[in-house]
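Possible regression after last week's pipeline update?

I re-ran a chain I had predicted before the update to compare outputs. Posting the input and the new output here so someone can diff against the archived version. Not blocking, just want to make sure nothing changed silently.
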Amino acid sequence: MLKSSNYTEEQLQRAVDAYKSNSKLKITSLSREFKVPYATLYGRINGKKSRTMRVPLNRALNDSQEEAIKIWIHQLDINFCPPTIEHIEAAANRMLRQHHTDPETAPPTVSKMWAYQFIKRLPDYEWVKQKLMNSKWVSCEDISFIINWFD
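New output (post-update):
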C-alpha cells in the first residue's frame, strides 16, 4: 500500500477504468500497478467523488443563495453604502429563515465567522474596515448648520 500522495487524478482514473473494463481484477493489485492509494481507489470504484468535486457539508447557503448575497453586496457597494459584516450575516440568516420549511425545527443560522469566511472566499471582494467619521464632518452635516451658513 502506498503511504504518500504522489499520484495524479489521471493515474486514479486509469485505474478505475481498468477495473471497470475487467471487474475480476483485484483492487490491491491495481493500486500497486497504477501507484495510487488503495482506499482512494476503492472509494472511487464505489462511486465516491474526489474532495474537490464534493459539496462541502458545512456549507450554509447553496450556490444560488450565495449568488444572491453577492448581487446584494454589489448593489449596495455601487450605491456607496457597502454592507458591514453584521449586515451580510443578517442577510444570510434572513435568507435561511425564508427558505426553511420544517415547522418542527428552528431555522438554521450562519456562524459568527461565516461572513468573514464568505468575503475571504470571494476573489472580487475584500474586507475594508470602516473608519469613524470625524466629529467636524458630522457637525457639518447638521441641516441647521447648513441653513445658517447660507442665510
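Follow-up from reviewer: compared with the archived run. The CA atoms of residues 34 and 99 lie 46 Å apart. Marking as no regression found.
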